[in-house]
Specification:
The protein is an alpha/beta fold. Helices cover about 30% and strands about 30% of the residues. It is globular, with a radius of gyration of 18 Å. The N and C termini lie far apart (about 40 Å).
């Protein structure tokens, strides 16, 4: 399997435990309390005062939290995720909130889409892409489907000077900006050995300056940003991006 397909297994476990969102929340009425939504909500009305006839696409939607929030706000919204379990739960969540949100299951990096969107949201999907090739596919997709004056909202892990809490987990190790993980040895992964452990690449946790250089290299500029400090863990980087030289 591709390394990011591990999320299929993760969502099966979450669903078995009654979760209705990636963070393990079991109460549907609380799913919009998630940090991504809080961060999005702070500036959404600044960039989209009137969402009428505006379109949005949520990449890595999981159980649909962000896509559903955008529908609730007034966008014509859709969400994409690789996990059938997650998409099934997203549809259940949509029915609960009586929201007309479209959801699609498939590998986002292979997505063929002729539509253009006013808003693209990254629901912590980008840091799940490890290789430069896969990350390029993400940015190429974003460039292809964003309207000239559209915005790309990013919510992703970034390197923190203190990640002592995070790195105490026995199943992970960080080398440079790649997070490696142990796992079920029966998984058909591209395994490697580091420090005597059999691991696969799991996350990309860049430093802020390197992440912003990557944005620039792929034709985007940062319009607004903030970094949410999480002592002992990777920080959360939140930004609104636009195409360079958008007309």
């Amino acid at each position: 399997m591709k390394y990011y397909e591990i999320h299929k297994e993760a969502y099966k476990v979450l669903a078995q435990n009654g979760a209705v969102a990636w963070d393990g929340e079991t109460d549907r009425d609380k799913i919009f309390d998630h940090e991504i939504i809080v961060s999005l909500e702070k500036r959404l009305s600044h960039y989209f005062k009137d969402p009428t006839e505006k379109s949005a696409i949520d990449l890595g939607t999981g159980m649909g939290t962000c896509a559903l929030y955008l529908s609730k706000y007034g966008f014509k919204a859709r969400g994409h995720d690789i996990s059938e379990t997650a998409i099934s739960k997203a549809l259940e969540n949509a029915a609960y909130f009586k929201l007309d949100t479209d959801f699609f299951c498939g590998d986002i990096l292979s997505l063929e889409c002729s539509e253009k969107f006013d808003l693209i949201t990254d629901s912590s999907f980008l840091h799940c892409l490890v290789t430069d090739e896969d990350r390029k596919k993400f940015f190429d997709l974003a460039k292809n489907i964003i309207n000239d004056h559209g915005k790309l909202f990013i919510h992703t892990m970034v390197h923190s000077d203190d990640m002592s809490n995070f790195l105490t987990a026995p199943h992970i190790l960080l080398k440079e900006d790649i997070l490696w993980s142990t796992g079920n040895e029966d998984w058909d992964m591209d395994w490697t050995e580091i420090d005597g452990r059999k691991v696969f690449s799991h996350r990309r946790i860049k430093k802020v300056r390197d992440l912003e250089q990557e944005f620039a290299d792929h034709g985007f500029e940062v319009v607004e940003k903030s970094v949410i400090d999480d002592p002992g863990n990777p920080d959360s980087y939140v930004a609104w991006l636009a195409l360079k030289n958008a007309t």
